[in-house]
Amino acid sequence: MKNLLTRCALRLLPVLVFLAFGTGAHAAIDGLTGTTFNLTAKAGYLSTAEGGSYLMWGYANGSSPMQFPGPTLIVNQGAVVTVNLANELSVPVSIVFPGQSGVTANGGAAGVITREAPAAGGSVSYSFTAAQPGTYTYYSGTNSDLQVEMGLVGALIVRPTGYSESNKIAYNHPDSQYDREYLFLLSDMDPTVHEKVAAGLPVDNAAWWPVYWLMNGRTAPDTMTPANNPLLPHQPYNCMPMMHPGDRVLLRMIGAGRDLHPFHVHGNEHKVIARDGRLLSSGAGANLAENLFTSTVVPGATSDAIFSWTGAKLGWDIYGFTHATQPAYCDAAGNPTASYPADRMSQTAADRCKPIPVALPNQTDLTNGQFYSGSPYLGTLGSLPPGEGGYNPNSGYMFMWHSHSEKELTNNDIFPGGMLTMMIIEAPGVTLMNP
Amino acid sequence: MNIRPRKSQVPAVILALIFILGASGISWGAEFWLRAQSFTKTMPDTGEVVTMWGFAQCSDGSYGSCSAPTVPGPRLTVPPGDATLTIHLRNNLTGLLTEPVSIVIPGQTATMAPVKFTDGAGRQRVKSFTTETPADNSTTVAYSWSNLKPGSYLYQSGSHPALQQQMGLYGALTKDAAAGQAYGPSTAYQAETLLLFSEIDPVLHGHVAAGSYGTPAYPSTIDYQPRYFLINGEPYSAAVPPIAAAAQGQNLLIRFLSASLKYRAPTVPGLYLDLVAEDGYPYAYPKRQYSLLLPPGKTLDALVPAVPAGSFPIFDRRLGLTNDSAPGGGMLRILSVSTDTSPPSGSVLINGGAAATRSRVVALTLSASDLVNTVTGMRFSWNGTTWYGWESYATTRNASIPEGADGEKTIYVQFRDAAGNVSSAYSDSIVLDRTGPTGSVVINGDAASSSIRPVVLTLSATDANSTVTNMRFSWNGTTWYGWESYATTRNATLPLGAGVKTIRVQFRDALGNVSAPFSDSITYAP
To answer: May I ask the CATH class of domain B2-338?
Structure first.
């Protein structure tokens, strides 16, 4: 057990580095942009957080290392997209683009579902017009039962014509407006398949039994380490949503594995506005959207949701402002003054300047986790015993976002792990370090 | 597989009575005869022989003429007008393990008679949801539904369902709200494909064949692990041909049904499906998706409006794509949509076929039909070369003849079908005639004078594009007598008082165009 804890702590070390220093914010999903993409199907190894290493097949960006999931392709609506696929694997591979109509395939060899890049050096080219905005997935249409499990899957994002840095929308309607976006590509994995492929043994996919559950290609807690972590050379994407109170966060959810996953968010519900790249609409915006706290993520399907968290309705001031602590912001009657900071007003007006309605326990009565800042207030660092609270240097609020099938919070029978990450809400003014 | 029911014989007297009572929507009861039977199925790729229980379709209550049993059982298609359904069931299961069977239809109301047994603890427990049909191949039990709803449904055994549904005792039952409409006008379709998803765990079937199901060797379906993944009773293999689903431009209805025990996720990468109904209930709004989640026991109906031509793979994205462990099989089909190259044919009439008009505004009557698809568009031209833009097809439309001289005018129309095929040009002509007749009037053969007031008028008028039908007269050019039929002679009486008398005449053609006045004079000298 001690060994495990040590390993977990080592694994989490990058979280600390990441949260403390970060790389600057651009609030967009990692991926490749453009209209022409050169992908190469090749092999590599996937690391699981408890120390496993498994043979994977993935789509690489050109001569870059194999990656899982494949590169997130980010294109603009109306663009004529060309995907050239080269194949370094010993089996034929291909790509299907569900949700894109009129995909043409050139070169390669005929397959059952689409044209394929022949084994060991073959190539094929796909082209389509990205006619409609939305979140899509792509994956191998060749022996998909094996090749999707082996990792030949990725995300495709089509930005709407009305999109700009100052008007971030997922679809051509204000209902899809957002401040920052995150990808949640959920998959599952049976290591037996990968071991048998590595050993050249026949695979029985009818007996598939997953024991790993992944978000954007990583198991927890690796989901929370930075993107392009050199310790995870074949898993460049992380999965760590961050926001400021009041932000609208776009969740792009993709079922990339074989099983259904109940993706559960804490902190607030989320409004599902689209499925399979189409706004849930009868004609007037996302008027058929639905509020959920758990989205069923279906294999091969995508959905988009808007999550927001404002601090509203808690009944107390999330920043800990009271007349005693901030007389400039709060008058003697416990009401906010005209000087109350404008960037802290997302919480309900009646909650401003109200003290937390509990007597905070004495620090010596607490067992502190590494994520506790020592204070219940957002952005406030409290006093902590030596060595505690290292993972939350900016005193954010952390909400676990995870599969609600608790079995899926393990890495090969070891808890915690699997399909789990944290949504970190940082105080206004704190630079968000992911992405 | 698609079997229509035999009609009940309703005595003519009763029909007459219903007629007299003024009842509308006379219902003919749909009636089917099914027989549960054991058979073996050889699986592709592996050659594994699996014992199945399926339904066979029989022609009548004698059970003398039956088709081979199948899994799924025969599709039962109930005509739109039928409110009642009766399925007669016989049970010819054979082998080391046989059981009484029954029929239930989730989603359709029926009077159920659950069958119970007493377990080891003395408790009454249900073993069949409704009356059982014993495996004696002689007892026939009738199962009836009196208020059958439209939609897509599974019929299945309601006895020991954990075993019997898995063994294959299920099938599809469909009823449309009206001919060509699944649930109403918004779900009208021209082509239809039914896809029934199911699975086989050969180990379970093997224990049924060996009589060891329900023994410690294989206690129950709890150990169920499917190894074959089927659509319409067959896993994919190279021998499975594409499904001829529709012709280009048709509205394609796809009925998804699942007799699987696992979730399936049918996906069509090249198309979007408008999900229109679930469990036989239409949605308020369609859900547009390229994939759908198909839970066990569920039915989902999807419409693909104006389906494009091509080959569209449809497969289970939960990756039930193996035949046992062999890849390249399972729940995969190719939907083939044929190209529609036949254009519509049609006609156009101006003003109901009239020969001429004096108004530039005319009414067009249009008619067009297409062998494969619906006619969706039309466009017009007044010269056969310069065309106005495409507009929605309609059977009537007003049009304006272009400015210009009178004469024969021809309108050309082309029709377009949902697949984009454009017809040749159809035309109709009409004469535009806005000019009155020309003519003359002569009094008394152009005599200079008359001593008496009665005179004879000689009239002559012609019209370029029509016929002269009327004339009227005036002695002063302002006060006119009424219109009368055109004639070449007419008697008239000169006004009182000596002097020069001038008669004025106007002629009118059949379209109503009126000529300028023509006149002649005579001196009245009494």
So the answer is: mainly beta
Residue A102, pLDDT > 70, answer: yes
CB contact under 8 A, B322 and A205: yes
Three-state secondary-structure class, residue B473:
strand
This prediction's pTM: 0.83
pLDDT at residue A223 tops 70: yes
Examine the pLDDT at A135 and tell me if it is beyond 90: yes
**A411 vs A418: CA distance, rounded Å:** 5
Q: Which helix (H) or strand (E) holds B395?
A: none
Q: How far apart are CA A143 and CA A145, in angstroms?
A: 5
Q: What is the pLDDT of residue B26?
A: 44
**Phi, psi (rounded to 5 degrees) for B399:** -145, 155
Asked whether the predicted pLDDT for residue B304 surpasses 70, the reply is: yes
Say how far apart CA B284 and CA B172 lie, in whole Å: 24
Asked if A206 lies within 8 A of B317 by C-beta distance, the reply is no
Angle at A163 between CA A161 and CA A168, to 5 degrees: 155
**SS (HEC) of B66-125:** ECCCECCCCEEEECCCCCCEEEEEEEECCCCCCCCECCECCCCCCCCCCEEEECCCCCEE
Contact A276 B285 (CB under 8 A): no
The string of pLDDT tens digits covering residues A359-410 is: 988 888 888 888 888 899 999 988 888 888 788 889 999 999 999 999 999 9
DSSP A325: T
Check B272 against A276: CB less than 8 A apart. Answer: yes
Domains of chain A and any CATH numbers = 2-308 (2.60.40.420)
Q: Which fold has domain B345-432?
A: Immunoglobulin-like (2.60.40)
pLDDT of res. B3: 58
Residues whose CB falls within 8 Å of the CB of residue A299, separated by 6 or more in sequence, listed in order:
A255, A256, A257, A258, A259, A260, B265, B317, B318, B319
> What is the reported pLDDT for B1?
47
For residue A168, what is the DSSP state? -
Contact A45/A234 with Cβ under 8 angstroms?
Answer: yes
- Residue pair B327/A146 in contact (Cβ under 8 Å)? The answer is yes
Average pLDDT over residues B455-459: 94
Do residue A301 and residue B287 have CB atoms under 8 angstroms apart?
no
Q: Which residues of B touch A99 (CB under 8 A)?
A: 269, 272, 290
Chain A residues within 8 A (CB-CB) of chain B? 96-103, 112-114, 141, 143-146, 148-149, 202-208, 255, 258-260, 275-278, 280, 282, 288, 296, 298-301
Domain B438-524 has CATH 2.40.10.10: no
Whether B235 contacts chain A with CB within 8 A: no
Tell me what the mean pLDDT of segment B160-167 comes to: 96
**Can you tell me the distance from the alpha carbon of A111 to that of A93, in angstroms, rounded to the nearest whole number?**
9
Question: DSSP of A240-286, one letter per residue?
Answer: --EE-TT-EEEEEEEE-SSS-EEEE-SSS-EEEEEETTEE--SSSSS
Q: How far apart are alpha carbons B348 and A315 in whole angstroms?
A: 74
- Contact with chain A for residue B332, Cβ under 8 A: yes
For the record, the structure tokens of A110 come out as 């005929």
| Domain coordinates in residue numbering, chain B | 2-338, 345-432, 438-524
What tokens were used for B472? 């009227």
Which of B101, B106, B153 has the alpha carbon at shortest distance from B128?
B101
d(C-alpha A289, C-alpha A281), whole Å: 7
Q: List A292's β-bridge partners, or say none.
A: A270
Question: pLDDT tens digits for A322-358?
Answer: 999 999 999 999 999 999 999 999 998 899 999 999 9
**Greatest C-alpha distance within chain A:** 78
pLDDT digits (tens, 9 = 90+) for B373-432: 789 999 999 999 999 999 999 999 999 998 888 888 999 999 998 888 899 999 999 999
